## 1
Amino acid sequence: MSESGPGRLTVFAPAKINLTLRVAVPRPDGYHPLQSLVVFADWGDTLHASPASDLSLQLDGPFAPALAEDTHNLVLKAAWALRAAADQPQLGARLTLDKHLPVASGMGGGSADAAAALKVLNDLWELGFSTRALAEIGSVVGADVPACVWSRPLLMEGIGEEIRVLPAWPELNAVIVNPGVPVSTPDVFRALDRCEDRTGFGVLSRVPVAGDPAAALALAAAGRNDLEQPAVILNPVIGDVLAELNAFDAVRLARMTGSGASCFALVDEAAMASHVARALSESHPDWIVRPVRLAGAA
Ligand code: C5P
């Protein structure tokens, strides 16, 4: 966390990548038990918080217009949840969200912003909640928020609230591609329930602890994203993205993240990520393409 300006705090809200995502049949409340290997990119939004008597949120950055209509912004929901948990409803802050991640893109941007709000306000208001406590508060804001509070390589289970931080995981090089189509997460889950018969989870019940990139890659490759097939049916452009990524020799694994439409491709070297990203940006100027590093366990 860095400070710039009197009393102003800043936190980074990194993009979430589901290297694998297994989804079981829904519970009676409609939520789906899942199992996911999650890592975070060095690309994301930034949230600033300054002392103020009222709670307010200003939107900035390239994707601010896409959020402007949203009256249920997860940043404010998180701030309200934190004030309630602290039993201090009077607390105020001036929040500014620098929005760099495309909205409704499967990278957990809204959840990452909510998690960043919990972290930055916990510090600004000197509440002293632990990471575990912030993750629990975040679970009522959104299913992906606890993972984003931890924001390090982890296994996510339950409906997102059961987190196992991985003690060993290597940094990976990747390219993220978003074809610019917003995707409704509930629609994709509903499409999955219609199109597939699912009995349980796959390989991730064997704990994925891997220190070297080859083992991590093998583990990711052995998994899948159960939401990919229904998302491709709803938005065929996702299939185009995956096909284009798979056409590069350097790409070891191409897969959709979350409920889409963003996809990632794992490559061995940062230079390969830059090469793939440059080539795709040229052939598809309407796609958002980004070479990234997916952080390893600290
Ligand atoms: O909790 P959140 O608002 O992020 O979830 C968005 C939607 O995704 C939910 O309304 C639900 O339809 C679906 N979902 C699900 N099972 C999960 C997580 C999300 O069905 N484990």
## 2
Amino acid sequence: TKATQRLDYAPPAYWIDSVELTFDLDPAKTRVLNRMRLRRNPGVAPQPLRLDGEELNLARVMVNGAGSSFKMEGDKLVLENLPEGNDPFELEIFTTCAPAKNTQLSGLYVSGDTFFTQCEAEGFRRITYFLDRPDVMASYQVLLRADKAQYPVLLSNGNLVESGELDGGRHFARWADPHRKPSYLFALVAGKLVAREQQIVSRAGKPHLLQVWVRPGDLGKTEHAMNSLMAAIAWDEARFGLSLDLERFMIVATSDFNMGAMENKGLNIFNTKYVLASEATATDVDFANIESVVGHEYFHNWTGNRVTCRDWFQLSLKEGLTVFRDQEFSQDMAGSPSARAVKRIEDVRVLRTAQFPEDAGPMAHPVRPDSYVEINNFYTVTIYEKGAEVVRMQHNLVGREGFARGMKLYFERHDGHAVTCDDFVQAMADANPASPLALHLEQFKRWYSQAGTPHVKAVGQYDADARRYTLTLSQSCAATPGQPEKHPFVIPVALGLLGTDGRALPLQLEGEAAAGGTERTVVLTEPSMTLAFVNVDSPPVPSLLRGFSAPVILDCEYGDAELLALLTHDGDAFNRWEAGQRLMLRIAINAIADEAVTTDAAGQIHQNILPAALAQAMRDVLRHPQLDAAFKELVLTLPSESYIAEQLGVVDPQRIHAVREALRQQLAVALQADWAWAWEEHHAGGAHRPDAVSSGRRALAGLALSMLCLAARQSGDAVWPGKTYQRFKDAGNMTDRFNALSALVMSGHELAAPALARFHAMFKDDALVLDKWFALQAGSTDRGGNVLPAVKALMKHPDFHIKNPNRARSVIFSYCSANPGAFHRQDAAGYVFWADRVLELDALNPQVAARLARALDRWNRLAEPYRTAAREAIARVAAKPDLSNDVREVVTRALA
Ligand code: BAL
Ligand code: ZN
């Protein structure tokens, strides 16, 4: 298949003004009557109408009430003899499709006994022939007809205008969407569902009906989603003046879903994972994710739906912006400055462990890509998370008020239209003409056009005689596929200086009359710049890129003492955490390279590699009287194996695993008394509340327990594993229960087996909890290659269903994509397993298969024997002749 190129964009030759869809819903054969009103686009040379379609059975085509000739060009339906002139005409198309056979979960499909749709990006063409592109916006009326007993609830976008009975036990519902929309925002749902309802009056004084639709047994788990929705509505009004534009706003949950959730106009469809929560079944992380995803989809109603994308190359226009908005929402909901910093650290951790590798690998692409074979492959961390960082930089360059002005202008200019990333930045700059963004606008746009993570190198020099500190910042960016040369970016660097005693120094640049403040943001636009700070009494420690002010890799040759000073004193919580991570990363990288550090036959390291000073620094953080528990938990968690891998030129995953496990083990033993203290101080809780403070306490108690079980592993002591098992049994909420279970499983204790059995028996009817049970085992710490056989056994478990994406992810992805120490095996069995699963999934669900295919993105940097074996596995997948475009694109790029 040919790649689609961004620069080939051309406006549509026809507009579709209105659509009337009639569905006779039947799992085996659903009939779809599509009546459209179209007209030629006068700005485009006359040409045949080419409609997109996929896996449809075409029965009839009528133009202005009369049968019409047509032809097929591949999947496209082509009409050549259309009425001349620019008058509107009617086009009626009658097709059928087979929802029960739709395992791709794109278009119209059946999950359980319920019909759902997923149309983004190109699923609508699997429902009917259409101009399935986001710049064609139409008014929709939808008539749903179905058996009433089987499908008592019939939902679509907009407002319910009519419903009633039909012959033969059937019924109907007619929906009208008051807003024009692109086809990717179409949705329908039909089945046995119940709703939690809430009437609200918005700030703007308008009444709205909110509904969260779920299967009947799940109603008790919808309160948090509804609360999150109400909070999101209030937040968007308060922060951006954006009100709900619908009388009715619905969320529906399904257990079979490719993505997290989907922002269909007025009828959001969600993966159950991001809706259902009770304290007995959902962890604090689940609660936080639900708040954030409910917010995200709601915020799309403006950023995505009211203003949408001209073409799919502009995907980050809505996704980067909406992720930025959901991140800000979560921070505002978290409350305290410290809780905000925790959220920021978590977001950056995702960026650095998932997006940085993408940006350095074969799938690297700009935030606004230039070409794609399969658009579904571009719902990436680059489009989403890096896109959000690019919006965040704009926010920081124009300020909070300026950003609100920019948003206002963006909606004034583009409401109701399909636009581009350039249009967004232009509005931000025009609303803030004196800002550094406006000043460097064209250069700033390189963040959208150039792939790759820039490096910023910082070199400081102190001149005691002149009481002067010079700091040179220089930027560079490595080549990425198709982009050999990079031009300088606009990089905002928030910084401060710490004195010898840890105090924040007043900042005075050469040429300034007086010192001003202890923090400022400098904007690096050239390849290199030098800042000269004056009146500096002693060699300072620079605190750079505060709050992670730009998505770059900061190279700064800090000494251990400097990092310790930052860890202890930095006023910026992000950099405080960062200093701790750098210290631990340094120890890990040195041990990995040190040939004197050896492993035994079981792959374990027995030498001490944790320096006493680092252990003491970690102890100081753990025991700190003022720091929040959530922050401590982040500092005391070692950088992940994949993050460590990203720092190395050649990656030996087993070596990384051995070193990180040794560090964890030694941190567990060295701080044993402190972990016991942390457990005692933090484990008790009253009634469960998922707020930032109490979830932070649970997180730290959980980490303490896992460390105490690790320490017990070494000493053979039975007390802490016993306590952990007791905690597992007695826990009053899922967070505590799961943390205890996880501590037993991850430390490889013999109590893990009975605990796992008990857990399964308790939750055998709760699919989301079973996903956790599967994922924990597939993601478990590898000891002598024991995880792969366990994963294979899990796939034979009666509760394993590969067609269900959540379950496939919980076993296969948890192993291949999230457990490097177990996946990268000397005998290549992990890669063989991976290739088999990619092929198996590709026949069912190409989107899910292509995600899994990305687990070996970074094969090229693996040490031998992994590298050759990984390449062979990828080549075996690529050799299959009838691969989907999705998987074909990923493996082709990997081998390029
Ligand atoms: N638009 C796809 C799902 C999401 O990003 O909300
Ligand atoms: Zn989104």
